Amino acid sequence: MRAVGVILLLLVGCGVQPRNSGDTDEVSPPPVVVSDGLPICASIATPGMPMFKASACAMPAPGPIAVVTMTSIDTDLGTSKPPGLTCAHVGNGTAKLCVIAAPAITVDAGITLSAHGSVPLAIFAHSISILGTVDVASHAGGSVGAAALLDGCLTGSLPRLAGGGHGGGASGVGGQGGDQGGTSSTGGAGGFTFAVTGLVGGCGGTRGGDGSPGGQSDGGATTGGAGGGAVWIVSDRDKLFIDSGAAINASGAGGSGGAAEGHGGAGGGAGGLIVLQAPTIQLDPGGAVFANGGHGGGGAGANAAKPGFTAGAAGTDSTGPASGGSGGGGGTDGADTGTPAGGGSGGAGYPGANRRGQDGGQAGHGGGGGGGGEGAIRVVSGTRLTGPNVSPPAVQLP
Question: Cα–Cα distances in Å, from 347 out to 14, 20, 30, 263, 372?
Fold first, then answer.
């Protein structure tokens, strides 16, 4: 099991450069001076989980921050693309946060503030309005969410032959990979979860088998979907407002499909972690908070030399609380005539009911990858965050 570290933080004097709207000049902030002289402070402590404990005080930037253009934060460097928004690194033994702090923070409608890197993202303000999207999710073929677990995850059993890889785990278990057609017990299996004891994301799925006896002679060309990242959002005085059409997303990535003859699909990544803290939280209808699993990739067919062969399709990412994606379809087997079954389809990530990848349809056909398990949502607020727009169900902390 992954040993997840304790979070015990003290942030003092964390200044960030405000992002100005397009009709004003961008300026560097003066030395940290807060208009009301009051820092932003936050704490989390649960008697039943003594290791999940955090405290923080941050001196915000002197002015409000409005994210008005698509912005990606690199939490390892503390910088953004395009330039203009920074986050401050705060040490805590071997752990760190990348903190954006300001009197008020707004993410505009239609705008995405995303974060990638090994360090979790934290957003601290006296008031926060999310009208667009805060995205620490991982995406198939794209970026890996901030603080997704890349090392130390239990791999379970890797696939053999052309079995599918298993889905990643976090608060919930990932699905087993489908078997190579005609050969049982060849899909990857990794039935595990871990307790949420700190700000850390989910585990990735494992790669599909490549048809070799050990299922991995190609060095990992079929990679598993990465787990979702981690974000801590604190509004210490006013409500945290999540508008209709806005989203906070920490989902895992879909797994890639079997790329060549007799290859299994990769497993999807597990969801990550979202921690929301405010006196009250207003989640409008149509707003969404989700940390779902990515969908498994489909297995490939078995006869690449024949007309009609196709590789397995990649699993899609979750696009909303109800999942919003699907497992990748299995490839065709390349038969000269007819349409016999090909590779197995990938399993659906959480909240899909069946996360196991399908078996290959005939001998030698690749199994589908398993879907990723659920992440976690933790809430520290007088408001209970419930309903179909929250996935998985949020756990209320004292």
Answer: 43, 44, 52, 16, 8
pLDDT band at 55 (very low <50, low <70, confident <90, very high): low
Peptide bond into 82 cis (omega under 30): yes
CB atoms under 10 Å from CB of 6, counted, come to 15
Residue-wise pLDDT tens digits, 90-143: 755 456 788 898 889 999 999 999 999 999 999 999 999 999 999 999 998 889
Number of domains making up the chain: 1
* C-beta separation of 251 from 352 below 8 A: no
Q: Which of 212, 157, 179, 143 is nearest to 361 (CA)?
A: 179
More confidently predicted of 10 and 210? 210
Q: Round to whole Å and give the CA distance between 268 and 63.
A: 41
Cα–Cα distance between 192 and 172 in angstroms, integer? 8
> Rounded to 5 degrees, what angle do the CA atoms 256, 143, 380 make?
110
Q: Would you report the helix, strand and coil content of the chain in percent, each value rounded to 5? A: 0, 25, 75
User: What does the mean pLDDT of the chain come to?
Assistant: 82
Q: Is the residue at 187 inside a domain? A: yes
In a domain? residue 33:
no
Closest CA to 4 of 217, 202, 255, 236: 202
Residue indicated by tokens 């508008």:
243
What residue spans of 29-129 are helical by DSSP H?
none
Closest alpha carbon to 190 in 203, 204, 176, 172? 176
For residue 240 the two structure tokens come to 């945290």
Number of H helices, E strands in the chain: 0, 19
pLDDT at 215: 66
pLDDT tens column, 338-353: 455 689 999 999 998 8
Instruction: Tell me if 122 is assigned to some domain.
Output: yes
The pTM score is 0.87
| Eight-state DSSP code of residue 252 | P
Q: Please give the residue range of the domain that contains residue 175.
A: 69-398
Residue 368 is encoded by which pair of tokens?
């589908």
For residue 5, tell me if it sits in a domain.
no
